[in-house]
Each structure stands twice: as C-alpha cells, then as structure tokens.
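Sample entry (187 residues):
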Amino acid sequence: MRTILLLAGLSISVPVLAVPTGLPPFIRPLPGTTAAAHPDLAGGVVSDQLVPFAIASATSPVSGTLQVRVVKNAAGKLAFYWKINNAAASKGSVDTLSLAGFPNQSYDSDWRIDGLGSVAPSTVEAAPLPGLKNWIFGFRFKTPIKPGESSRFFFLRGSATASAPAEAHITGGGGASAALPVLAPAG
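Predicted structure, serialized as tokens:
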C-alpha cells in the first residue's frame, strides 16, 4: 500500500464559480459550477476512458470505475475531469481521489452541478512534490461515495493544450488505496 500525503495550508474561499488554485500549498472548498455560469468549461470531449479499480481490504473491499475525461474548449485549453463510480457490490466507500504529476501552474478546480452523479467533492487541496516542478492534488469527499453511488464530474483546468500520462490514487475506507492511470497537462 502506498500513502500519499495531501497536506496544505488553509486558504480563504473566493466567491467565484470555478475555484482558482494558487501556487502555494492550499485547501479550498468547492461550491460547484455549471457550463451556463462558466461557458469556457464547455467544449468537445477529446478523451473519455473508464478505468476499473479495486481496493483490497479484508473488511471493506471497494471496486468500480474511474471515468477519466479530457475536454477542449473553444480557445484550445484542456480541462481534466474525473467521475468515480463505486460498484454496488463494494463493501466500502470512496473518500479521496489524489492526482500526481500536474505541472506547477495555476488551475481552476470545481465540480459540475449540471452533470451526472450524486456525490460532490467538498474540497480540493494541493502541495508540491519534491523538486517543486510537479504538484499533487487531492479531491476529498466529506460525504463518502457509498456502494452503488457515483461522484459528480470534478475537474482541474489550467492553460494546457496537450495531455500526458499521470497517476491517480483512489482511497477507500480504512485508508487503503489503488493506483490508476489518468491524464494530466503536458508540461
């Protein structure tokens, strides 16, 4: 089992529709947004994959899929979206998705009110990885995603126009996690 530390300093919430992330470590609440309120989120889907996962646990194994979606807006900027689907046969909940390998730059982050799913992430947090060139982001669910439930689509969007392979970790009850391939901004 690999553990990823997602600790950062506390920050004040800014009343905007997509929550901009700064470069110092932070934790920010996510209020949710729509494409109607934030039109630059709309665009064409350039990649959409369902990645299966399984979190081994003696008492509460979790399995399901992570939907990994990349959307390109009219300006050519990419938004990186995720949606967690916890299988009905799971015995535990999902409470965190952590993402590693995002270049050190500012990102908008939030979840889509106008999308599928029922459980929204409550916060996003970030901290630099050793060397300060890349960051790790964590989306936390105050209300965990229970068996048979799915998250809302949530995202990070910066100035990237190309993507590259990266890694995510889904964490279930009890702290066990599974590593998954995802896409991140090329940088």
